[in-house]
Predict the structure.
Amino acid sequence: MDDSMNPPDASAAAHNPVDGVLIAAAGTAHTWARAAPADRARALAAVADTLEEARPELIATADRESHLGTARLNGELTRTTFQLRLFADQARSGAYYDVRIDRADPNWPTGPRPELRRYRTALGPVLVFAASNFPFAFSVAGGDTASALAAGCPVVVKAHPGHPELSRETAAIVRRALAGAGAPDGVFALIEGEQAGLDALRHPALRAAAFTGSERGGLFLARIAADRPEPIPFYGELGSTNPVVVTERAAYGRTQEIASGYAASLTLGAGQFCTNPGLLFVPAGEHGLVERIAALLRAAPTAPMLGNRIAEGYRTVAEQLSGLSGARRLVWPADDHQPAPRLLAMDVDAFVAAGSAASAECFGPLGLIVTYRQLADLVPVLAALPGQLTASVQGELAESSELGALTAVLADRSGRVLWNQWPTGVSVTHAMQHGGPFPATTTPTTTSVGSAAIERFLRPVAYQGVPQDLLPVPLRDDNPWNVPQQEQKQGVVDAFVAQPSNSAVAM
């Protein structure tokens, strides 16, 4: 993915003081975390409604700054408002509290059990680093902001320099909508500049950070988060090459369909997606799939990229990949400076010999085709890949008995496995997983898309023998917010409990 944050240098943006912003966020954190689920839901829905009202102006600004086109941007804004309403529903349900109540039980197998009540509460102020390639959905009012606000966390967004005007317009809308819905002051703020982002990340009031960008920039920020006097969670999405394996039967039986699907996925949004299928493994043979893909990419139009820095990065990595031993240029523009689609090919032996250099992410419309002889030969090759957001198989049901080991290794190396589909287009839904083993993300146990994204900004707290009037509202017996409560009563033993012994177990 692109460099959303580079290490600072002499040309870094002017210092942007953030102390007041973080102090205000910390000052309102307790109030926002204790707000009723219905109140947080109303605030999120108000942001969605206000963004919709400003759609024409926002789209015009976004198109001027990002060159993504009004059709794409309208779809992305719709996704953004949907995300906000999805998390409004999550907040309203209260299910994310994950309330568990154990009644006191003197006969518990491991010894007398006290009354315990456990739930999840907001972490506190969250810093969101906006992404370049999604000026709405992964930016100021995007999924990280929506999920953190729904969890009860104040949010500070570090604007991306690729769309500063849009960031300011969106932030003004968010602030206005939240205030109108009764949200407390300090629950949302926008900061700008690399130094401001670094200052915020180091601020003692911060409790978590979320980032979408390059591996280089993300690791730089992750080290800062880890090296703080009080380390904090850093949820970084750092990029992926998203391997796709085409089986022999699929290559011969669905040549045109696979070629068209791959070319469309590779060039979607000028290849500026973290789920872009940069690696394609195809069987050697006379199926014509490689030639058909090459023909489609030669005919594909050159689309403008998000900015000159991103275009230059695309050209640089493309040159590096094309210079690997055994790499062949199948599609390459006459003018090297054009951000046009590019296609390289090499056999699997050359790919293995090149090591990690061959699996480097190229943020843009470049595909590397790797030809293999036997499907079984791919298992150790795929197992050696770095962590991925997605991994896909284009195959036939008749081959399912041959694909068990392959599918297992793809699941081991990625967060989402696809069958006869393409990875671009990440649905915002409950079961979506947008994350994966390092370096796809810094925290493979979480997702940045879908309703489960709220879990990143919550932490569990247990109360033992605490009186009712001192308990947080979700843990009380009268349950005034009507949140789901899982209760363990006396005499009921969970399936995982071992045979009772005569001595209590201290933990």
About this structure: Confidence is low (pLDDT under 50) at residues 1-16, 493-507.
